[in-house]
Amino acid sequence: MPFADSPQREFAAATEWAAGRALDALTGAEGAALLAAAPEPQAMLAADRVLGPDVFAPGLLTGSPTPPETAARVAEAFLLFPADWSEVHAWRDLATAELLGRAGHDVPVADPPPPPGPDESGWQRWSVLMAQLSGLALPTLDGPVQQLAREHVLALARGASRSMLRRDHRTATRLARWLAWLQSTGTPPLLELRPLLRHLALTGDGSARTALDLAVADRLAAA
């Protein structure tokens, strides 16, 4: 078996595969994920840790329950890959743990420190942080990160516009997902979402993870 960096490549490929399966479940399509061999079990668990709350996105957006075996696998992933208490991972882990708790799996996580707002870090850096936390832009999830989004809609809109100008379509898609979440909760997003989402659909990076972000944003905007 190859070489020092092969686990990273394997985990990245598994994450793409898992994102493709989540996308298929959300859209009701049978996409490229079904054409590729399923990842090895350890790589699949690593992919679940990377996707975090988005493992549950199809169920939250369609009303279909997340398969029990999927929730059990995510809970197992927490045991194999312990929590990383960096700023981004801490909040993603907390959201994943909440969704696991609803599915009957208690996993140990501690409350992370409050996330910074744009006044503390500057709106450019803050919008990048919020893009990294786009997995928290899901129905029924609420907390300090979502409250920051409500309080700083303009910074999110500016971040999305800046990312489009920089042709950073992945970041733009993730921020558009936050704007769509805001619209779904009754907060005006300060940008015309439909033209933005149509443009992003044409200019995406081709990855399953970005396609999943875009599909989630589409569902939220429709809601």
List keywords for this structure.
223 residues; mainly alpha; 2 domains; 12 helices; 0% strand
Description:
Helix 7 (123-132) crosses helix 9 (153-165). The chain has twelve helices and no strands. The protein is an all-alpha fold. Helix content is 65%, strand content 0%. It folds into two domains: 1-113, no CATH class; 115-223.
Poorly predicted spans: none
Shape descriptor: globular
Euclidean distance between termini CA atoms: 47 Å
- Compressed to H and E, one letter per element, the order equals HHHHHHHHHHHH
- Helix-and-strand structural type: mainly alpha
Total number of helices: 12
Strand content: under 5%
Mean pLDDT across every amino acid position: 91
Q: In total, how many domains does the architecture comprise?
A: 2
The helix fraction, in percent, is 55-70%
- According to DSSP, the number of beta strands is 0
Query: Could you describe the largest sheet, including whether it forms a barrel?
Result: none
Any idea what the radius of gyration is? 17 Å
How are the elements arranged and paired?
Elements: H1 6-27, H2 41-51, H3 57-62, H4 68-80, H5 87-102, H6 118-121, H7 123-132, H8 144-151, H9 153-165, H10 169-184, H11 193-203, H12 208-222
Helix pairs in contact: 1-2, 1-12, 2-4, 7-9, 7-10, 9-10, 10-11, 10-12, 11-12
